[in-house]
Amino acid sequence: MPSERGPKPHPPWVVTSAAAIDTELGVVKTGKEADVHLVERAIPADPADPLDPPTGGPGRSVLLAAKRYRDAATSDFHRSGRYQEGRRMRNTRDSRAVKRGSSYGRQVSAGRWAYAEFETLSRLFLLGLPVPYPVQVQGTELLMEFIGDGVEAAPRLAQARLTEDELADCFVQVTDAMRALARAGLAHGDLSAYNLLVHHGRVVVIDLPQVVDVVGNPGGMEFLQRDCVNVCEWFTRRGHECDADELFGELVAELFG
Ligand SMILES: Nc1ncnc2c1ncn2[C@@H]1O[C@H](COP(=O)(O)OP(=O)(O)OP(=O)(O)O)[C@@H](O)[C@H]1O
Ligand SMILES: [Mg+2]
Predict the structure, then answer these.
(1) Looking at the annotation, which residues are catalytic?
(2) CA 144 to ligand 1: nearest atom
(3) CB–CB of 187/224 below 8 Å?
(4) What is the pLDDT of residues 77-120, one digit of tens each?
């Protein structure tokens, strides 16, 4: 299976050593199209590792989120079709297998989503957007920075307990991220309070396999507008009033600005 590593320079906490040992710690969440697992990646003591204490240290470990896409046959994949318009598959053998729906073809489909999400995370991370650092992709599994405290995942915006001021601050962060995406010509495509994490007051955008090229995709504007409506309806329901049309107008200005 082809694999890829995250963008350089690596954040200092990333463990890339070939001696690393991954241990499954459990399931973070099972979703419709993918399951997210918690994985500990540990390396033995290494004097060459700047983060490892001097010789004789215990080595170190880091927690990662492993998002494993399910085989398209067992997942209820809603993201196909329109999201994919304007994207091409590299290899005709793969595209034939996907069309036929063979088990190899279904693996290819699941792997394509893992790759698409990995590539988007890499691009957005380099643009400075608040997304988990993508550590590695291999086959149908994407390994990324785990957003949380210890083994406790950060709450999704939908579940976070926030004061009025914190809610207002989250709105600014979410719309700043949407503006940055728009400047890159993109819309999240499935933005909601379930695909945003809140970690110590910082909003992190997740679940990005279906990011939409707003200009290149014939339905791009509709996706952008739907993201605006989802976000504004949620914030308004929670007591932070905002206007989806106004936000949409601002993002369109960013797109062509
Ligand atoms: N990097 C991460 N750090 C911590 N928790 C994460 C991370 N990525 C995902 N999660 C958790 O796993 C859940 C599912 O992740 P994600 O939304 O990417 O997958 P999904 O299969 O699309 O799920 P769904 O179908 O529920 O939208 C998230 O809502 C979040 O609670
Ligand atoms: Mg999700």
Answers:
(1) 190, 207
(2) 1
(3) yes
(4) 555 555 655 555 556 777 777 777 777 777 777 788 999 999 99
